[in-house]
Amino acid sequence: MTLLSKPLNGCARKQWTDSVPYTCYEIGHTWEPRCTIASLDTIRDSLKFSLKVYLTFYTVTGLVKLRNKKHRNLKEIRKLFRDVLQSSVFLSANGVLFMSSFCFFRHLFGKFYGWHGLLCGFVAGYFSLIIERKSRRGALALYLTNLSAEIIFRAAKSNGLVHTIPNGEVLLFSLASAGFMSLFRQRDGLPESIQTLVQYLVGKVEGHDPVTNEVKCSKVIPGRKTLLFLKKM
């Protein structure tokens, strides 16, 4: 859809208080000239995409939790479907509210301004977060902070303000993994669903067990081959 949008000639040099002489059909919902129909199309496509994402996510975490007998009940299954629907509505509302406010403020002010996208993003983000569960708002805020930092870095790099470090992404990944595993080995360091999933991947000899509330640490026990190797040294 971006390729179908109107080219903003010279808009890169404009200030954020300047306006552009285009309609929301020309630079927004380019597949449909009517704002109402475009919003309905956004609702349909957003819900379809959101259900695919969160149904997969919650199904995987739910199957991991079902390994524990205390979670094998009808209440947990109902909670699983409720979480899928609530998170799907949250993600759909984010896209729908952005598109709807995009058209609404265009008709309200009569033009598009540089701050138009910020206003639409604030409206969509604020009201969609109200729909989502409070327990997930912190994780979403952390995720968006990561995206914001990446956008700021790319913008600074394109303007020549910063320079990349060779293999810097490897260093960043290593630091993030170390911090994540440090939280994994602490009590209440990670949410129970993530704790259970990571423990399923790395094994029960590491990390904090959410069932027994114990912190486990693997120990290297030298075998026969190891002792023979040490004797030769």
UniProtKB/TrEMBL annotation:
Superkingdom as given in the UniProt entry: Eukaryota
Segments crossing the lipid bilayer: 49-66, 87-107, 113-131
Keywords: Membrane, Transmembrane, Transmembrane helix
Organism (species): Ciona intestinalis (Transparent sea squirt)
UniProt-recorded name of the protein: Transmembrane protein 135
Domain spans labelled Transmembrane protein 135 N-terminal: 21-156
Family: Belongs to the TMEM135 family.
Membrane topology of this protein: Multi-pass membrane protein
Pfam families in UniProt: TMEM135_C_rich (PF15982)
Function: Involved in mitochondrial metabolism by regulating the balance between mitochondrial fusion and fission. May act as a regulator of mitochondrial fission that promotes DNM1L-dependent fission through activation of DNM1L. May be involved in peroxisome organization.
One GO CC annotation: endomembrane system
Keyword Membrane appears in the UniProt entry: yes
Subcellular location: Endomembrane system
